[in-house]
Amino acid sequence: MKHLVTLKDWDRDTIRSLLDRAADIKKEPSRYRDAMRYRVLVMIFEKPSLRTRVSFEVGAVQMGGYAIYYDMSTSPLGAGKENIADTVRVLSRYADIIMARLFEHAKLEEMVRYSTIPVINGLTDFSHPCQVLGDLLTIRDIKGRLQGLTLAYFGDANNNVTHSLLFACPKMGMNIRIACPGKPRYMPQPAVLEEARKTAEHNGVSVEILHDAVSAARGADIV
Length: 223
Hints:
Number of domains: 2
Oligomer: single chain
Order of helices and strands: HEHEHEHEHEHEHEH
Strand order of the largest sheet: 2-1-3-4
CATH class of the largest domain: Alpha Beta
CATH architecture of the largest domain: 3-Layer(aba) Sandwich
Distance between the termini: 35 Å
Mean pLDDT: 97
CATH superfamily of the largest domain: Aspartate/ornithine carbamoyltransferase
Number of helices: 8
Shape: globular
Number of strands: 7
Strand content: 15-25%
Largest sheet: 4 strands, parallel
């Protein structure tokens, strides 16, 4: 059973396989209209979202499944009357997949610890893997490849999207440049940066932290 917690946990072949499947679903959606037949997705939302809810719910329905929206703000879990462990144990008996969009990454890790069904990270303060998988699919659709491309990211780099890009890009053979302010609170977390640089060295690509937008953009394939 595979969870999707962070892209650090997924190897290159797993990511490539998922992108291949996603591309095939886009090309021939009718082939997948029963892929989730009789399957139930429970979507736990602590942090509301338009796109996350609609994309997951529509995706489940279009593949023949069912999606249940679980709003933590109006639930016993959100009110503190039930804990994560008990909630996830119950959901594991009723449903087939859990997607959780939460503020704290530690809560997602606790869900994974007690779940007997796959858990998908719809967003936490540390990681946003679904966003970056969607980015990679779009880049590959437009550019025809990922290997050898250079992606430049601009802005506050101490966030979930930057961390997920740093885990994924070097793994897929992409160079990544982060252009951000030089103060530590705007920098990627050191452990994430260290992991990204190890992966980049292994795959013969680069991870750069820059503090000049022009330098970061120069020669980049994706901004």
